[in-house]
Structures are given as structure tokens and as C-alpha cells.
Amino acid sequence: MILLSVVGARPNFMKLAPLARALGRRPGVRHVIVHTGQHYDAEMSDTFFAELGIPRPDHNLGVGSASHAAQTAAIMIGFEPVCLDVKPDAVLVYGDVNSTVAAALVAAKLGIRIGHVEAGLRSRDWTMPEEINRVVTDRLADLLFTPSRDANANLRAEGVPDERVHFVGNIMIDSLVVSLEAARTLAAPRRHGVEGRPYVLVTLHRPGNVDAPDTLCELLDALTALSADAPVLFPVHPRTRARIRDLGWEAPAGNSVRFLDPLPYLELLSLEMAAGLVVTDSGGLQEESSYLGVPCLTVRPSTERPVTCTEGTNRLVAARRDALLAAAREAVAAPRRRVTIERWDGHAADRIADVLVDGARFS
Question: Do 212 and 323 share a structural domain?
Fold first, then answer.
């Protein structure tokens, strides 16, 4: 059996790692990895392969940054010859980035079976390019591997036959579980001078938050105000750093927001584990913080991961200074609680391998 995985961006790598391990334990399975190069710099790509123990990609398309249309087209053009050469039994795609939908389109047109890892998530916000990628990929996929029960319900409502849907659990949590001890040993809070103190960990990169100058100013002002109560550690995505620079924003006197370079996975996880609060617009941090029991504020009007709000520690908050400050203070004051979400147990990859190799069924 030849299985071909396509990844291109930081969230994909964390989903690929546990499945690469699980497939590597299966005799008779050849697993080919294609890196599209959608995230192409060392901080956003190379370090993740090293830290997560992902095998070196067999192919790197090197597409780099571009508009959505140009990037998607470049991936399709580069990926088609790989499929024709490798002749996989199935193409596996991950998450909701441009690499995901581009590879799915190529595979579908070549008549190759498609497995979508993290299928069925819906924000119902059509201004998000990721929502378009999710819906199109799920329409094309033959095997839909869902992380939560609400994802199954979404697919059923869209008319996807139940036999194509497998509730395997959250593969992101597989990577987290395997990495916990290494992240704890790294002791990033001590290295950043915040060990034993409450602090806020921030990531922001969505266009809706960082591309509009007024919104970005509101968020930066809110973080500055939060830093009066506790240190704020802000690993800044390249996109966000460029927007802050364009804005000409300068931190006021006494500000203790620490703008950091993008962090490797283990260092970010080490900080997340001990944080008093996470403020983000990332899907992955919503899930990780819920598993860890860390309060999380997601600066978005909707989330494709509602289980993190109904069963986890996540809460949606408007991109306004007053809303973020009020929600942050409520979240920090609330008692911590233990969170258990169904099949977020570190074994999602094994279930996916069971379906792919043995024809198992998970519902």
C-alpha cells in the first residue's frame, strides 16, 4: 500500500507527525511525504520537522508565499507530476490550508482516493479562506476523519454518507501528548523570566485581526493594558509583525508586552502549559489550551471548533479593547477545571491507520 501525505503549513506538521509514526509501524505500507513549501522559512517549517520527528519529505514543491489563487495553482501544478509518478493508493490531506484543497483537487481529478484528516469542522464564516478550503476538501474526500462529534453532525447535515465518516478524535492532541515531557523539561517560562508568575501568552495572525489598522490598534492597546497586571508574551507571526510595522505603533512607557520571534513548537507548548491565560486567533491553540485546562480567549466572532467552548476552556471575544480586557479578567479569576473531551486521548493516529490499512470503522 502506498499512502501519500501532503503538508504545507505549521498546523499540518503537528497532524502529520503522529500519523507518520503510526503508519511507520504498519508492515507493507510505504508512506510518501510531500511538503508544498507553503510555509518555507525555518521558524515556520524546518524546526517543526526536527522537533516532531517527522521523516524528511520525499518531495518539496517549494511554492512559497503568493496570493491564494497563485499559491493554490502552483501547488496543483507541482503536485500532479508527483501523483503520476508515485501512483498512491490514497492521498492524505490535513486541516484547511491552501495545500489541503489544492492536493485534494489534483487527487480527485486523477481518480485517487482522498483521506481528509480533521474533516467536518465549520465556522460558517465565509470570509475565512480556510472555511472554503474545508468545505471543498470534504466534498472531494472519500474518507473523512473527524476530531469531534459536532464535525460528524456537520457532515451529516451536508449529505455526506455516514460510511465515509470516521470519528477518530483529535490528532493534534496526539502530538501534544507525546511532546508534554519534552516541553516540560525545556522550562521555557524560566528562560523567559516568568516562572512562577501569572502571564499571558498571545498569538494573533488572522487577516480580520491584523489587516485592519483600527482593529490591530485596539488589540495592541488591550494587550498593553493587560501587561499592567501580568507579563504578556507575544510570539509575533511574520504577517502580524509586518502590519505592526506598517502601522507605526509604538509601545507606551511602562508597557511589558514582550514581542518575540515565532517560537518552535516545544517552546510554545512549554509556555502554554504554564500560562495563566492564552489569547489567540489560532485553531490549534484553542484545542491545546482546552486539553491543558488553560483559559483561552479566541479573538474571533466564530470558531470551527465549538467543542472547545462547550466542553473546553475556550471563549470567543470581540476584537475590541474593552471586550478583551473584561473577558481576560473574568477568565483569570475563574477557578480552573479539568477538561475531558471524547477521543482527545492521544490515539487518533492509530485509529486513522486502522481505517486506512485494516478497513476499520469508527463512528
Answer: yes
